[in-house]
Design brief:
Methylamine Dehydrogenase, Chain H, five-stranded antiparallel sheet, mainly beta, 1% helix, four-stranded antiparallel sheet, single chain, globular
Amino acid sequence: MTEVLLLAGTRKGLFIGRRRRNGGPWEFDGPHFNAQAVYSAAVDRRGPGPRLLVGGDSSHWGPSVFTSDDLGASWQEPAQPAVRFPLDTGASLERVWQLHPAGPEAPGVVYAGTEPAALFRSADRGGSFELVRPLWEHPSRKDWVPGGGGEGLHTVITDPADPDSVTVAVSTAGVFRTTDGGAAWAPSNAGVSAVFLPDPNPEFGQCVHKIAQDAGNPARLYLQNHWGVYRSDDAGRRWRDIGGGLPSDFGFAVAAHPHRPDTAYVFPLNADSDRVPAGHRCRVFRTGDAGGTWEPLSRGLPDEDHYGTVLRDALCTDDADPAGVYFGNRNGELYASADDGDSWILLASHLPDVLCVRAAVLA
């Protein structure tokens, strides 16, 4: 029998949900890491058993990465911080924005994206990490400017066919890509607009909010920008605008269907100056033709005016068939769909601000 595991990181801890795939009720426990802000979480299923990874942020003890090999019954934290900047960088870790287990092409490899914006690589499933220095020392770094939420490396995408190809996104530096295992990095923002800069089409400096990878074509990526929804068909070398059918192209989150090619999800917000659901309607939008058209998904979601903002890592899919789709918002609500987004149920309410959501199917 299989079950679905759901991790919801909030401003005051991690909540873990589990549900049997036969349609039984959801069961939640938590909060784990009480009073810690959990900005990142991941499920790594490549080893002998699933490993949970969590980026916690204690106001007293500072940020750390925790792991669990028993689905959250117990947690391990290394004696020395797993993610830390070398002394010669003059930097200190503020937050772990992203934890990304690579695919089977890179066994044991886990990436961490941080604030200040940097990429760290682990070869032991998240037990310890090393700074990827070529990106940290990129010539453009001196011109990176923090966005309203800070300067964070919040997205890591790996190529399932090529362990040397990695794409990252930084707020507000844009997309960068390596094809040689991290030895060299190049900006990959052609076509992505930066309407808030004097030059709206710079080489770097875009405020990219999130990227997702298409299920059928690893070179096809979807990007939610600070104004603008885009698609790339060449692993980020060039981008084209696909936001025309949305009520607003401002938002934070984007996720891809786990099996169905050309299918992705976004949660539009009114504007950067009005960060509430577009038209005050709680709606996820789905494309089934790689952004050619978009359809609203709202069956089971609130009909009345709604003000729950969905943040960049608070929308995700599992890998079931049909796919589960999940999102949490700053109202503390957690919603789930078990049918590709066609219908929704409320899983939890009155949680602290939901910062990140991750889901996986376990055997």
